[in-house]
Predict the structure.
Amino acid sequence: MAPKTTLNAKNLEALGAECLAQLLIEISTGDAAAKRQLRLALAGTQGPKEAAREITKRLISIARARTFVDWQNRKPLVKDLETQRRAIMEQVAPQDSREALVLLWRFIGLAMPVFQRCDDSSGIVIDIFHQACADLGEVAKTAGPDRRRWRGRFSMRCRTTALVSTTG
């Protein structure tokens, strides 16, 4: 049996919602990434539209960023991109596949601006965009009509992402 101080879900649940909320506020103070993650989780409880709004705000912010990200500072960018991709798939796609498609297009559209300001010599960043392309295919299957339109956009964006990975 695990000691009561071991960090696991069961032990943390025993703290209660109020205590955990206070801890999360304290831990996230001064940590923009943690605050974004908490806001995203809260938005997800309000439905896919609210989650999509939070995701969209972050994707716009990532697209506008101009700071070069070298290999030493790549980890936060990778985590941020992966958080947004997972949020699209876990919080939006199950309830609103069309909205998820729009978000995934926007996400994949980040490839060019991200690679222009990022050292991805390890290939970790491009892997996230490749996964987003795969996610897009899965979501498109459930999005309903306009498959030809989606398919054309899908192949063009994924070709662009592949081109960026070989030239960026």
